[in-house]
Amino acid sequence: MMSDQIVGVLLAGGLARRLGGGDKGLRKLAGKAVLDIIIERINGQVDQLILNANGDSARFSNYKMPVVADVVPDFAGPLAGVLTGLEWMRENQPNAKWLVSLPTDAPFIPLDLVTRLMDAISNGAEMACAKSAGRTHPVVGIWPVSLLEDLKHAMLVEDIRKVDRWTGRYNTVHVEFDIIPVDPFFNANRAEDFDEAERLYKLLHN
């Protein structure tokens, strides 16, 4: 593990409208909750995991990690989850300098995600986000706790909600990941996406 401690935040704060509500991460894929699959893949890449989720945290009681609600009201999106993670870090892990954010609907995240993001920022970038097939994934990124107050001002004073609108202000590098055999950032937003996720999961594990 790198010398600077890294916290991972699993972003489950959305409303999952395209699935009719509920928690995408608790839906089953290959007999396991998607959240369990993601945790298996990110464990060992970070020093601690927290879960950003709104509402009754009891539904995640099986998970032995802190469950933290958005510090910004009204389901303000993934950027609010990043801010929440940074605030939690400052209060609970003052030695941690980096936050890695992950969606809870992407069950194929790379096993070398954090290493590659950290390598990218070692060349002078302020933060890094993932990219695949020419498409950026702003929610999959690494964020410095040093920009916490900047992000708080952007959200609470300037009412910024789009991740890339904020990251565009900084030296942000996009790290390209291979999509063969599977796009590692495939996300299951709709019911039909889970059928495709089942197929991809079998492709990876057979």
Report on this model:
This protein has about 210 residues and is of the alpha/beta class. It has a single domain, classed as Spore Coat Polysaccharide Biosynthesis Protein SpsA, Chain A, CATH 3.90.550. About 30% of the residues lie in helices and about 25% in strands. The chain contains six helices and nine strands, in the order βββαββαβαββααβα. The strands form two sheets. The chain has a seven-stranded mixed sheet, sandwiched between helices. A hairpin with a 2-residue loop joins β2 and β3. α2 crosses α4. The chain is globular and about 45 Å long. The relative contact order is 0.18. About 0% of the residues have low confidence.
Task: List the SSEs and their pairings.
Elements: E1 5-11, E2 28-29, E3 32-33, H1 34-42, E4 48-52, E5 67-68, H2 78-92, E6 96-103, H3 113-121, E7 127-132, E8 135-144, H4 148-156, H5 163-167, E9 172-177, H6 191-205
Parallel strand pairs: 1-4, 1-6, 4-5, 7-9
Antiparallel strand pairs: 2-3, 6-8, 7-8
Helix pairs in contact: 2-4
